[in-house]
Design goal:
Blueprint lengths: L4 E5 L3 H13 L3 E5 L2 H11 L3 E5 L7 H9 L6 E5 L4 H9 L4 E4 L4 H22 L5 E4 L2 E4 L4 E4 L2 E2 L4 H11 L8 H7 L10 H14 L9 E4 L3 E4 L3
Parallel strand pairs: 1-2, 1-3, 3-4, 4-5
Antiparallel strand pairs: 6-7, 7-8, 8-9, 10-11
Helix pairs in contact: 2-3, 4-8, 6-8
Length: 232
């Protein structure tokens, strides 16, 4: 089996070297970049299987790198941040990052998150080879295999994680799932991760799916419990 390629975009060389060493022990192939500009170039040219992207970088910060990568690629992006401020984490998710991990972090947690994201991407790629699997839901047309959603005939710009959340809930209509359950089933994290990631992704998904995100008709909230999908 071909080893997966991980791009580490981190300006602190000591941290980058430790991550690269541990990835190699786990069978991954790792490349490094120490500033945002180099990271962007390697992300676009090298076609990594996953990007570990620091927020605070010289030349171009991680948010801008994430935004530019998302213009042409759906590669999983796991943002590394030393900040605790909610706004930084939310901004990364809104720009298309799949998740974030706050420094200092344990290597066991980091490796688990990398494997979970790569598993989801591999599963999506395998399903995509099966051709169309269209489902009409209200004014949405969802291609479950090609990970494509159209609203009134127009393709929506969903991130991979947004689509996977929609797909998971739509296939289990009217069943309520807690944030912890969704983090485990959609993100693939059993014990790691921040449940706020789920809330931000739901909000972003509603903004794209709904005519009025304040009065959703697809992704519903069960107060005190979690989220569920309802056909309008």
């Amino acid at each position: 089996m071909e080893s997966k390629k991980i791009l580490i975009v981190e300006d602190e060389k000591a941290i980058s070297d430790i991550i690269k060493f541990n990835l190699a022990k786990e069978g991954f192939e790792a490349d490094t970049a120490y500033d945002g500009q180099d990271g962007l170039e390697k992300a676009l040219a090298g076609k990594p299987d996953l990007i570990l992207l620091d927020v605070m970088l010289p030349l171009m910060d991680g948010f801008e790198v994430c935004k530019r990568v998302r213009e042409s690629s759906m590669v999983p992006i796991l943002m590394l941040t030393a900040k605790e401020e909610e706004v930084d984490k939310v901004l990364g998710l809104e720009l298309g990052a799949d998740d974030y991990i706050t420094k200092p972090f344990g290597m066991r947690e980091l490796i688990a998150r990398i494997r979970a994201n790569i598993r989801r991407t591999d599963a999506q790629s395998n399903e995509g080879e099966n051709g169309e699997n269209l489902e009409k839901i209200g004014n949405l047309t969802v291609d479950m295999n090609r990970y494509e959603v159209r609203k009134d005939g127009k393709i929506l710009d969903l991130t991979l994680r947004e689509f996977e959340l929609l797909k998971y809930l739509a296939e289990r209509e009217d069943r309520v799932f807690s944030r912890e359950q969704l983090l485990e089933e959609v993100w693939g994290y059993e014990y790691y991760g921040d449940i706020r990631t789920v809330d931000v992704t739901v909000r972003r998904l509603r903004e794209k799916l709904e005519d009025d995100s304040s009065e959703p008709k697809y992704i519903m909230t069960k107060r005190g419990v979690g989220y569920y999908f309802r056909r309008p």
